[in-house]
Amino acid sequence: MEIETKGVAMKQIALALIIVTLLAGASGGFYGFRVAAPNLNPAKAAQASEPSPTALQPNASVFDLPAIVTNLGSPADTWIRLEASFIYDPKITPHPDALGGQISDDILAFLRTISLSQVQGIAGLQNLRLDINERAAIRSNGAVKELVIRSLVIQ
């Protein structure tokens, strides 16, 4: 009798598991279709292919900053190495070396204040990129068009 009830219980659990899996797959497929659906519009796709305002100008130059290595604010035994470049107009900034040193110092000071949780994941990387771009723009009085992260290692 006990074996018979165990068999029925196992069948019920398996059936419930199958139903839940099908429902999850259906809802995931529906949500995925809703997210992908806006990309099917050709008018929006044409707008997305237009160059952004931060697209490189014909007279833009790139300056590679020296590698920045420091420990994070929290936890203190976590180290970060950031290699970046900035895009600038050589007519506005004829000597980017001095500006590069100031931007490097500013980024170094900023990296010493952040925590590991602030730079984890895609959103953390995006926020870090936005923060250092904003700092570079402020430090250069708008001469830096964009700061590009070439490599980022956190250990």
3D architecture notes:
This protein is elongated. Strands 1, 2, 3 and 4 form a 4-stranded antiparallel β-sheet that branches. The mean pLDDT is 82. 50% of the residues lie in helices and 19% in strands. It folds into 2 domains: 48 residues; 94 residues, Band 7 domain (Tetrahydropterin Synthase, Chain A). The chain is built from 4 helices and 4 strands. It is of the alpha+beta class and 155 residues long.
Quick tags:
single chain, 155 residues, alpha+beta, Tetrahydropterin Synthase, Chain A, 4-stranded antiparallel β-sheet, 19% strand
Short description:
This protein has 155 residues and is an alpha+beta fold. Helices cover 50% and strands 19% of the residues.
**Based on helices, strands and strand pairing, what is the structural class?**
alpha+beta
Topology-level CATH name of the largest domain: Tetrahydropterin Synthase, Chain A
Order of helices and strands: HHEEEHHE
Number of helices: 4
Largest sheet: 4 strands, antiparallel
Taking the alpha carbons of the first and last residues, their distance comes to 59 Å
Residue share in helices? 40-55%
Just name the CATH architecture of the largest domain. 2-Layer Sandwich
Number of strands: 4
Radius of gyration: 25 Å
The outline comes out as: elongated
Mean pLDDT score = 82
CATH classification, class level of the largest domain: Alpha Beta
The percent range for strand residues is 15-25%
What is the name of the CATH superfamily of the largest domain? Answer: Band 7 domain
- How many domains make up the coordinates? 2
Low-confidence stretches: none
